[in-house]
């Protein structure tokens, strides 16, 4: 009887084992809290509970040999024309930071006379990160969806490169293609701008660190 019970004893799932192992392996309070958040939240929830990252060295990112300069832009802003005023504020904020982020803004930076498809694809390929400002106008604009699909095709598994930002959109209308990504919900503009900036910085920091480790 005891041998039969031992054979039929349920084993913990690989997912649960992985979560317990990763949480127990870390001794810092911030890491353990992030594990708890990840296990209790489904993809597509707000980035308001963003994970604390290690301090970013601005000098490393801005160094002349940094991997940052391998692409023309740090961030491409994908947006609807009706949201241009808000996007211009975001671009002004990012470009005014000490890091002087290089932003692609379609109506400002697209070459006159060039094909829209060519410009959108070129902007995606030549940017490290892509901010998707998802508003009712974004959901109605086929060009916004096209650029979103191009970004996902360019780097489907790149953590932190695609940054969804929701504004005036219900969660049920969140694009299905982005359901595996956490998003920033724009309630207070200043806080959202800072979250976007921190996310870009975190990605550039990881990019430069991995590039440095490969050359050593």
Automatic annotation (TrEMBL):
InterPro entries, alphabetized: TIR_dom, Tol-interleuk_rcpt_adapt_Tirap, Toll_tir_struct_dom_sf
Cited SUPFAM superfamilies: Toll/Interleukin receptor TIR domain
Biased composition (Low complexity): 17-50
Limits of the TIR domain: 71-200
Taxonomy, superkingdom: Eukaryota
Disordered as annotated region, ranges: 1-51
Bias-annotated ranges (Basic residues): 1-11
Any one Gene Ontology cellular component term annotated for this protein: cytoplasm
GO BP annotation list: positive regulation of canonical NF-kappaB signal transduction; positive regulation of chemokine (C-X-C motif) ligand 2 production; positive regulation of tumor necrosis factor production; toll-like receptor 4 signaling pathway
Molecular function GO terms recorded: Toll-like receptor 2 binding; Toll-like receptor 4 binding
Name of the protein in question: TIRAP protein
Origin species: Pandion haliaetus (Osprey)
